[in-house]
């Protein structure tokens, strides 16, 4: 409960935050230049918009994420990423949205071995993002002596459309979360985090996702603890295949990529190909 309160306090103190000094971190993925921010006079590191996967654009739309390739030039990570596409009136949305943010104490360096909180936002798998003010984790870092990671993952059609084939396997939004968690395991020590003390924390859809990770063999060894707030696998209703196929067919029909005669089940390659080319 204390952690949730501190997350909510982050929203209250957001008005007292300003970015200024630059910080440079050398990671296995490449050099990253973040910023420091002042939270009511106390400095916090903010490393924002770190890519954890290749942009899921064009031929990669509806497919599982590809881990980001290492880079050699310094990555400027000083601004929050755009939200993933959703049916909300947000000023900054993009399909190129697979980024994470790291908030850390100003003194955190490699070897600090601080506990890590990996936050997965809620929103019924159709809305939400790491750029929401309420998910600015500066206050939690300030009071909790931890490192906090917040992530974006694909939502709605872009994250969960399926043909039940390799053309559109479905649940790629879940694989986004998994890929982000893998990136954190490979790189968090460079920011002063302890990869043996990663706690997953989420609410609503984020909590449901974490409950799945708790039983998945894919995530074995990638985290040590979990905090689930208002959601679990037992109430997850979006995992039924046929209703999802029916919704995917409806989407394809609306944009002119399918019909009663050409369906996402009978001709997945052409229907999904059409959906990929549709802007």
Automatic annotation (TrEMBL):
Residues 1-18 form the signal peptide. It comes from the Eukaryota. One of its GO terms (molecular function) is carboxylic ester hydrolase activity. Its EC number is 3.1.1.-. Residues 23-278 form the Carboxylesterase type B domain. Pfam families: COesterase. Keywords: Glycoprotein, Hydrolase, Serine esterase, Signal. The keyword Secreted does not apply. Belongs to the type-B carboxylesterase/lipase family. This is Carboxylic ester hydrolase. The lineage of its organism: Eukaryota, Metazoa, Ecdysozoa, Arthropoda, Chelicerata.
